[in-house]
Amino acid sequence: MKGVVFTEFLEMVEGRFSADMVDDIIDDAQLPHGGVYTSVGTYPHSEIVAMVVALSQRSGVAVPDLVRTFGQHLFGRFVQAYPSFFTGVTDAFQFLSGIEDIIHAEVLKLYPDAELPRFIVEHQDARTLVLLYQSPRHFEDLAEGLMHGCVAHFGEVIRIEREASTTAGATGQRFTLTRQA
Ligand code: HEM
C-alpha cells in the first residue's frame, strides 16, 4: 500500500486522538517499518491493518468504524492534494462512476506500483448508482468511508447501502447509492 495512505492515517490519529496515541499504536503493532513511512514508498497493507487493530484496542472504537472514519478523512485530503481530479465534476455520482476509469487510472500513472481495487458500475441513472467493489485486500470499509466523504464534499444527500454480492462470477461488495433529495 502506498505510503501516502499510512502518513494520512497517522495524521488523522494524531489529530483525533493524540501524538502519544500514534507512538503507542506503532509500539503495539510491532511494525517491520517501525512506523516510519514516506508518502511515495510502498509498504505491506498488513501494517496499516495492525495499527488500526491497535488503535481499536486502545480507543475501544470498533475496527470498521475506525476504517470508515479514515476513509472520510482521506477523501477530504484527496480533495486538497489532487484538485485537478475535481475539475468539471459537479456531483458525487459523476465522480464515483469514474473511480475506475478516470481517478484510479490517473493514480496508476502517478504511482505505477499502486495496488488498486476494481470498481464496476453495474447500474446508473439519475437517482441510483450501483457499484461493485472487488479487492483481495478487502478494504470495503475504507471504500464506504471514501464514498461518504465524496457525498459530503458535493453537499448531497445520498443513502449508501452495502451487501456482499451473491451474483455468480461477480464476488465482492455491492454498494447501492440512492439520492434522497
Ligand atoms: C481523488 C480521489 C482518489 C485518489 C487520489 C485515490 C487514490 C488512491 C491511492 C493512492 C490508493 C492506494 C493504492 C495503494 O495502496 O497501492 C487508493 C486505494 C484505494 N482506493 Fe482510491 N483514490 C481516490 C478515490 C477513491 C474513492 C472515491 C474510492 C471509493 C469509492 C476509492 C477506493 C479505494 C480503496 C477501497 C482503496 C484501497 C485498496 C483496495 O481496496 O484494494 N478511492 N486510492
What does this structure look like?
By secondary structure, the chain is an alpha+beta fold. The chain is 50% helix and 15% strand. It has a 4-stranded antiparallel sheet with strand order 1-2-4-3, covered by helices on one side. The chain is globular and about 50 Å long. The structure holds protoporphyrin IX containing FE. The site of protoporphyrin IX containing FE has 25 residues, from helix 1, helix 6 and helix 7.
Q: If you compute it from the alpha carbons, what radius of gyration comes out, rounded to the nearest whole angstrom?
A: 17 Å
Per CATH, the class of the largest domain reads: Alpha Beta
Class based on secondary structure composition and strand pairing: alpha+beta
Low-confidence stretches: none
Q: What small molecules does this complex bind?
A: protoporphyrin IX containing FE
CATH topology of the largest domain: H-NOX domain
Largest sheet: 4 strands, antiparallel
Q: In terms of quaternary structure, what is this?
A: single chain
Strand order of the largest sheet: 1-2-4-3
| Shape, per Cα inertia axes | globular
Order of helices and strands: HHHHHHEEHEE
Secondary structure tally, helices: 7
Give the averaged pLDDT, no decimals.
96
| Proportion of residues in extended strands | 15-25%
CATH hierarchy: architecture of the largest domain: Alpha-Beta Complex
